[in-house]
Amino acid sequence: MTHLTSVIGWCFGVLYRCFLEARPAVQGIFLLRFLAGASFAGSLFAGGVVNFPLWGGAALWVCVTLSVYILNGVMDVEEDQINGSSRPVARGKLKVVQAASVAGGLAVLSVVGSLALGSLMMLSVVAALALGWLYSGPPFYLKRWPAGLAVVAILAALITYNAGYAANGGGYGMRSLLIFTAVMALWMGFVGQTKDLSDIEGDKQAGRRSGPVVWGEGTARLVFSGVALCLGGGYVLSAALFAESLLIPAFILASGAVVLAVVTLGPWSRGEKSRRRRPYQVFMLTQYGANLTVLTL
């Protein structure tokens, strides 16, 4: 009994460290994207009846994103160690083979589970897993270039929102969905690259051609800030003209864009690593705000 207890404890320890490796904040925003997409097709809790396609799909999507980000941690171990990452694989608290095994198991589970939810969910799951591999693994390693990162991030966001919408039945709210998902996908694809501002040295040594490495840090800060402000303004204008129900999340995104530009261009995000992560933290908080607000509409 004692041996069984220790084995169970060891398994839970590995799974917990895998969860930390997959970046809980990122996992949360992917689940929110799925549910935000679903909200455009109707209530998430209609009639007090459990919507199995929706919540089953959400559970599978968590498996998908966990698999993708654990894989990313395995493939990024060199630059993460150079950049002083606190994640378990980089610190040696989680063995690469353990993380890779969990990532593979979650990928298989998500594909097999998707078979019960229809062809669209299965295709969405497979596409998301494929994007994760193209981003982190051979032969393309799309994470190494700004354009590759942007394309993968945009497609991943669009697939996630659409999967949630389809899982909840789809059918209406299409114009609002298109405006919201287009803006949020672009926000993820371009503004999300602010995370590279804190990893410049490690990216250079690992041969990764991130935006700050390719363009120079000063230019990258200007580009990220300008794109954020354009997306914020464009979202407000689009909502005002075509989907007034989206005005509140649009103003949240626009406000976040202003804060991000001020933080990115000012002295508050320079110096030590924790300060240089502030633009990315503003990016994440803005995402959370915009997606959470959509759920309340």
Helices and strands, with pairings:
Layout: H1 2-21, H2 24-39, H3 52-75, H4 77-82, H5 88-91, H6 96-114, H7 119-136, H8 146-167, H9 174-190, H10 200-205, H11 211-215, H12 217-242, H13 247-265, H14 273-276, H15 278-295
Helix pairs in contact: 2-3, 2-8, 2-15, 3-6, 3-7, 3-8, 6-7, 7-8, 8-9, 9-12, 12-13, 13-15
Radius of gyration: 19 Å
Helix content: over 70%
What's the rounded overall pLDDT mean?
92
Q: Helix/strand/pairing class, anyone?
A: mainly alpha
Amino-to-carboxy terminus distance: 51 Å
Strand content: under 5%
CATH class of the largest domain equals: Mainly Alpha
What is the total tally of β strands? Answer: 0
Uncertain regions spanning at least 5 consecutive residues: none
What is the third-level CATH name, the topology of the largest domain? Tetracycline Repressor, domain 2
Assembly category? single chain
Number of discrete domains: 2
The biggest sheet amounts to: none
Shape: globular
Spell out the CATH superfamily of the largest domain. Answer: UbiA prenyltransferase
Question: In summary, what is this structure?
Answer:
The chain is mainly α. It is built from 15 helices and no strands. The protein has helices at 2-21, 24-39, 52-75, 77-82, 88-91, 96-114, 119-136, 146-167, 174-190, 200-205, 211-215, 217-242, 247-265, 273-276, 278-295.
Tag the structure with descriptive keywords.
mainly alpha, 75% helix, 2 domains, 297 residues
Describe the protein.
This protein is an all-alpha fold and 297 residues long. It folds into 2 domains: 10-172, Tetracycline Repressor, domain 2; 173-297. The protein contains 15 helices and no strands. It has helices spanning 2-21, 24-39, 52-75, 77-82, 88-91, 96-114, 119-136, 146-167, 174-190, 200-205, 211-215, 217-242, 247-265, 273-276, 278-295. Helix 2 (24-39) crosses helix 8 (146-167). The chain is globular. The termini are far apart. The model has no long low-confidence stretch (mean pLDDT 92).
